[in-house]
Amino acid sequence: QVQLVESGGGLVQAGGSLRLSCAASGRTFSIMYMGWFRQGPGKEREFVAGIRWNGRTTYYADSVRGRFTIFRDNAKNTVYLQMNSLKPEDTAVYYCAATRGLVAQKTPVGYDYWGQGTQVTVSS
């Protein structure tokens, strides 16, 4: 099993920045990719960004490319999502996820483990 714990959400004004953290523990050697997803009110959960566990490959949703950056700290088994130039439409619960799959995943069904989520609210 893998446990994921997110932190770093909060309230920020449009144009501001936040950094989310996702600490992984347990059988982390089984992880191939990590991802961030978000779910806004009345919306389906959507992919935001992903990273290969070794940190060498990253990929993003078009809606956040150029504003968000995903990266990891190998020593801490932690993945981060740096969010800049935030917009009100970025408001959502953000979830960290991990997959044992060998291929980069952009859909929730492709992930095996999930964190509890952290709320991000961007005011206009």
Structure overview:
With 124 residues, this protein is mainly β. The protein is 0% helix and 52% strand. The chain has strands at residues 2-7, 10-13, 18-26, 33-39, 46-52, 58-60, 68-73, 78-83, 92-99, 113-114, 118-123. The strands form two sheets. Strands 2, 4, 5, 6, 9, 10 and 11 form a seven-stranded mixed sheet that branches. Strands 1-3-8-7 form a four-stranded antiparallel sheet, with no helix packed on it. The chain starts with a strand and ends with a strand. The mean pLDDT is 95.
Topology:
Layout: E1 2-7, E2 10-13, E3 18-26, E4 33-39, E5 46-52, E6 58-60, E7 68-73, E8 78-83, E9 92-99, E10 113-114, E11 118-123
Parallel strand pairs: 2-11
Antiparallel strand pairs: 1-3, 3-8, 4-5, 4-9, 5-6, 7-8, 9-10, 9-11
